[in-house]
Design goal:
Blueprint (H helix, E strand, L loop, with lengths): L2 E5 L2 E4 L4 E8 L7 E7 L6 E6 L5 E3 L8 E6 L4 E6 L8 E8 L17 E2 L3 E6 L1
Parallel strand pairs: 2-11
Antiparallel strand pairs: 1-3, 3-8, 4-5, 4-9, 5-6, 7-8, 9-10, 9-11
C-alpha cells in the first residue's frame, strides 16, 4: 500500500523559516504529482503548491507567493516545502498528497479530491 509520511513541522517565530519533508513509500515516485495542503482549525483544507513528476509547479494560493517553495528529489522519493518569512496566518496542519497523474496540478485552487493518497499531516505553528 502506498504511503506518504510528512515530517519537519514545529513552532517558529514569525519571519522565521521551516522546511517540511514528505517521503513516499511503495510507489514509483516519479509517476506521481505531489501537493502540499494545509488546514487551520475551523477552516477548509487549502491547497498550497503542487509539483508534477516533471517538475512543473502550480501555486494554488497567492498567500504564499514569494515565501514558500516546493521541490522534489526523485532519487530520495521525497517532496519538500521550504517555508520562509512565515506569518501567523501560516499556522495549520500541513498535509502531503500524491496522485499518479499530473491532473491535480492543472486546477487552481487545488482540489483535495483530486489526490487519492494522503499523509497524516505535520503541525506548523507560527508565533507572533
Amino acid at each position: 500500500q502506498v504511503q506518504v509520511v510528512e515530517s519537519g513541522g514545529g513552532t517558529v517565530q514569525a519571519g522565521g523559516s521551516l522546511k517540511l519533508s514528505c517521503t513516499t513509500f511503495r510507489v514509483t515516485y516519479t509517476d506521481y504529482a505531489m501537493g502540499w495542503f494545509r488546514q487551520a482549525p475551523g477552516k477548509e483544507r487549502e491547497g498550497v503548491l503542487c509539483i508534477t513528476s516533471q517538475g512543473g509547479i502550480t501555486e494554488y494560493t497567492d498567500s504564499v507567493k514569494g515565501r514558500f517553495t516546493i521541490s522534489r528529489d526523485n532519487a530520495k522519493n521525497t517532496l519538500y516545502l521550504q517555508m520562509n518569512n512565515t506569518e501567523p496566518g501560516d499556522t495549520a496542519m500541513y498535509y502531503c498528497a500524491a496522485e499518479p497523474s499530473p491532473y491535480p496540478c492543472t486546477t487552481v485552487p487545488g482540489e483535495a479530491a483530486d489526490f487519492s493518497i494522503w499523509g497524516q499531516g505535520t503541525q506548523v505553528t507560527v508565533s507572533s
